[in-house]
Amino acid sequence: MSVNWNSHGLPFLPGYTFRDVTKSAFHRPQTLDYKNGYALPRRPSVGIGQDPLLSEQLIQQEISELSFEKPNGTYDYTDQSLAKEFIPAHVALDKKVLRFHGFFEESIPDSPDEEYRVRPVVIYYYLEDDSMSIFEPVVGNSGIPQGKRIKRQRLPKNEKGDHYIWKDLNIGMNLEVYGVQYHITHCDNFTKDFMENEGIVLNDAEPMPVDPYIEHRTKPQQTSFTSPSEYDTLYHFLNMDRKVLRFYAVWDESDSQRRETRPVIIHFFLVDDTVEIREVHKPNSGRDPFPVLIRRQKLPKKLKPESEVFPSCAMEISKQEVDEYYSPKDFIVGQKIKLLGRHFLLYDCDGYTKEYYHKNHPELEIKPIEIAEMTYRPQERKTVFPPYNGFGSLEDSLRNCLSLIPKPPIKNVMKMLTMGNKVLRYSARLDSQNPYDEVRRFVLSYFLSDDMISIYEKPTSGTIGRKFLEKTRIPKPGSNVDDPEFYSPADFAIGATIEAFSHRFVLTDADQFVLKYLESIASHVPEHTLDSLRQKLDVRTAENQAADSKSDEVEELSS
User: Fold this and answer.
1) Ordered DSSP codes for 27-39
2) Which of 88, 141, 266, 360 is deepest in the core (most CB within 10 A)?
3) Are 3 and 19 in contact (CB under 8 A)?
4) Mean pLDDT computed over 311-334
5) Is 61 helix (H, G, I), strand (E, B) or coil?
6) What pLDDT sits at residue 203?
């Protein structure tokens, strides 16, 4: 069918159309083209079969028809305006978003540092579909879940089902969404221009409130600098540990219903100024088997006024309520003292306590007084060791008697650390009537770390070197078996005889270190011991020098 049917002046009806028999091309025009290897669309310039495009024909036809139309007498053609082009909202308002800044307050009910917290938010309004989203800026290391609070959606305005639109938003208003009230403080420039163009007057911008807790943390703390205390805690502990003042006192209960007095012992620990009071019970007295009257603690002497102390529901007295504690100056023999509501009369003390007061507090006068039969003065007595059972050393035997399960003896760790590698060595010979023992030579070693002695026999012609005596403590002959006296470096003089378990050894020589060490402790060593060592070592030194000079002369002559 030809597209020029209207040129014949016939209606476009069946039977009124004619076929162009001269037309031989019926192919469609090409609409794709390739440029630089890419397929690009191309608008066709002709129609099917090289015919003009239908749109161009219609335009030409309308122009020709309009050119023969007569204008209306009432209205001129030039007064008719063209219709405006319709643009949908999702195209006109695409990617246009209103942005408001605000905050909401979150209450903190169980925190002593803050009552509420101010959390800033950003409110986005999408003009395309009247949806909104609320976003909270993320703060690093805040410990609070932040980010997107409400995803993009239409937010309900009331219970009727209405939703918020851009006309409802303004600066300074409260936006209530899902039970949370957001307060809008300001907006960006695009939002301001858009609202003013639509005829809405925005309120003045408001400053963002500061979180009181953040402001408190950023505020510089008022620090007070005090001079360091002269009281050295570590020095006090190292020098006062296990040093205890012991007082003998009488607990006077005459004011109570019992009307009796009891003997007690008051221990004052100098390491931390604590006090312990123990009762003295006689056998079969019927008293409580636990004699501790007041457990070890710091006893308050003076309390602060009630106006300076916060009310407390605890019965115990805290450090904040105490103004002064008892010290050694408050315990004076011959006077009364009140401790935790109980009256005590101090009538005597032990020897160490008297020495302590005489050295540190000479202004305090100690006056022991005599009391009735209730007084208790334990007599100073020497520790009695159990008899030696013959197994192991004396310390092992003592440990077997002190406990059911024996423990190893206590060693002096400090002495072992300082004297661990120091050994005094002496040369000795065996004092024996056997002629074969005259050639035997021994090395006697004294270990300063544990005061033990070992004896080693040197190899000679006919004998081999071997250990003669293991490390042990050698008691002096004639000493008590239960409380023996052991050999010490003060007894090892050159020419002295040492009896070790029925064997007699005569010291003949010593190392140079022996003389050097004994001279460092000359106040604890007899003078004849040092003289014998000096004489022997000086002679040996002179002999060595003479031998060295002779060897040098021989070498010169030989050369």
Assistant:
1) PPPP-EEEETTEE
2) 266
3) no
4) 81
5) helix
6) 92
Tokens of 124: 């986005």
Measured distance CA(269)–CA(328) in Å, rounded = 9
With residues binned 3-state (H G I as helix, E B as strand, rest as coil), the percentages for the chain, rounded to 5, are: 25, 25, 50
State the Cα–Cα distance between residues 312 and 193, nearest whole angstrom: 63
Is 130 in contact with 154 (CB distance < 8 Å)?
yes
pLDDT at 455: 94
User: Is residue 370 in a domain?
Assistant: no
What confidence score (pLDDT) does residue 523 get?
A: 87
pLDDT in tens, 354-403: 999 999 999 988 888 877 544 455 554 455 656 777 777 777 777 777 77
Q: Mean pLDDT, the chain, as a whole number?
A: 82
Cα–Cα distance, 166 to 194 (Å, whole number): 10
For tokens 């639109």, the residue is 165
Q: Is residue 236 part of a domain?
A: no
- SS3 state at 541: helix
- The domain of 182 spans 90-218
How many residues would you count in the chain? 559
The per-residue pLDDT for 355 is 92
Q: Do residues 530 and 515 lie in contact, with contact meaning Cβ atoms separated by under 8 Å?
A: yes
Helices (H), 30-83: 54-67
Please check whether residue 75 lies inside any domain of the structure: no
Task: Find the CATH number of the domain harbouring 340.
Answer: 2.30.29.170
The three-class DSSP label of residue 381 is coil
Instruction: State how far the Cα of 341 lies from the Cα of 255, in Å rounded to an integer.
Output: 11
**284 in Cβ contact with 298 (< 8 Å):** no
User: How is residue 274 written in tokens?
Assistant: 């604590």
In whole angstroms, give the CA distance from residue 438 to residue 300.
76
- Three-state SS for 450? coil
In terms of domains, do 276 and 197 share one?
no
Task: Read off the pTM.
Answer: 0.35
Paired sense of beta strands 174-177 and 147-153, if any: unpaired
Give the whole-angstrom CA distance, residue 124 versus residue 137: 13
Ranges 46-55, 117-126, 295-304, 489-498: which has the least confidence: 46-55
What is the predicted pLDDT for the residue at 81?
A: 54
Burial profile 24-47: b = 16 or more Cβ within 10 angstroms, e = fewer: eeeeeeeeeeeeeeeeeeeeeeeb
Q: Is the pLDDT of residue 551 over 70?
A: no
Domain tally, the chain: 4
Q: DSSP label at 435?
A: G
pLDDT digits (tens, 9 = 90+) for 83-135: 667 788 888 888 899 999 999 999 988 888 888 999 999 999 999 999 999 99
